[in-house]
Amino acid sequence: MIMPPRLRKFALAAHVTSSVGWIGAVAGYIALDVAAATSRDAQTLRAAYLAMGLIAWYVIVPLALASLLTGLVMSLGTKWGLFRHYWVLISLLLTIVATAVLLVETQTIGYFANIAADPTTSGDDLRSLGSTLVHSVGGTVVLIVILVLNVYKPRGMTRYGWRKQQEQRRALQRSKQDEQRTVSQP
Amino acid sequence: MTDPPTYTDTGDDTYERFDRGSTTGMPRWVKVSATIVGVLALLVVVPMLFSGGAHGPGRHSLGGDTPSASLAEGQVLPEGGRG
Question: How many other β-carbons are positioned within 10 Å of the β-carbon of residue A65?
């Protein structure tokens, strides 16, 4: 079903907000992740792990799910479709992978936050926890790739998209011919 | 030599830049991207296989491979590992 222009604009605004917000939230998270990876100060580490847990659960995960959902709405509600163009299909796959990795990673982040929240945890224990930097930086790269794909929309139709396009063209031609026949008849 | 077909970008982010007259062949950018992703995946997966599939705690840690033994009991590391 193709969305009317007003609804499409609203869905687009929601999609851009959640997707760009996701990247921004991960950028903030990386700052804390770098602190967790490099700092030797127990207070800094404790604060970083606690904040990482909060940002991951209450900002990044909701934005990721919203981005996935609004992306589905945008593709299914416009003529772009979900499986017709390579850039849409690849964006969808990358978003699903990024969201899945994020959801698994939140278990680790939650573990760090729980340990940091325990006042009996020593500085040495906090220093031994490490960081999630590889996943957070890798995730950001994936998100930027998705963003670039969505802005540039590189050409290329899938077999399915091409077949659908041909069907639509044939249907359009048939309706035009029917129209002409109707007009020419007395 | 003819120039490749170009799109007219309407700027309104609708579906105005549809592929016209495109064929079913996979575009070059998809093939190149798939190759790069495949190589990167191999670079990640092969070392994991040689290291016994370890993708767990401390793998990417700057502070060492295992968390301190003095961590409170019951604070079990999640399966997903960390990175």
Answer: 15
